[in-house]
Structure formats: C-alpha cells, structure tokens
Amino acid sequence: xxVEDWAEIRRLRRAEQMPIxxxxxxxxxxxxxxxxxxxxxxxxxxxxxxxxxxVDEVEPRIRELLAAWPTIPxxxxxxxxGWERSMTVLKGLRPGAGAAPxxxxxxxxxxxxxxxx
Length: 117
Hints:
Largest sheet: none
Order of helices and strands: HHHHHHH
Low-confidence stretches: 98-117
Radius of gyration: 27 Å
Structural class: mainly alpha
Number of strands: 0
Mean pLDDT: 79
Number of helices: 7
C-alpha cells in the first residue's frame, strides 16, 4: 500500500464518514487492508529484507582462522575453507580491513588528478 492510499483511506473514513466496505470497494482493496490502514499510527514504509552475504555460511570458520592467525593471507583462508569465489570478499572480513590512509580503492584520488602526478 502506498502512502497516498493510506492517506486516502484515512481521509475517506474520518472526513467523509464512509464505511470500511465502501472504502474497500471505491479503492479496489480488501476490507482487511482498509482496517490495517486505519489501525496504523503512521504511513507504511518500504522495508527490504536483508539478503545476507555469500560468506555468511563460512564466516564462523573464517573468524576462527583469523583469531588463531591474525595475519593469515586471504588466499590461505580460501584454500582452507574451500572458497572458490572472489578474494575481495574474504579480504574485507579482516579486522581493520580497508585501504591505507590516503589510498583510494577505486583508483587515483582527487588530489592525484588535480596535481597531475
């Protein structure tokens, strides 16, 4: 249900004193939808379900390896867990992962382009 539908249902009920059955018929929705809109304190909000990550099922084993050997390379982790996908995902799980200060993971930074180095 859109915010506009929610507002229209509430307007028809409160301002026009229209019965739930009539509102459902006019807007082409079920009576339960009208009841739910009238009972809601705020307009509906879009919420996407989290899909998770491809690493979720092996993450405990990766964390276990990193706890035992904090400097273990991602390639060795991949070998030990049977990982056949991209190494980028595994590299991101290491504590403090990310680019070094002043280094861009996507290429030369703005300062490099401006200075012409």
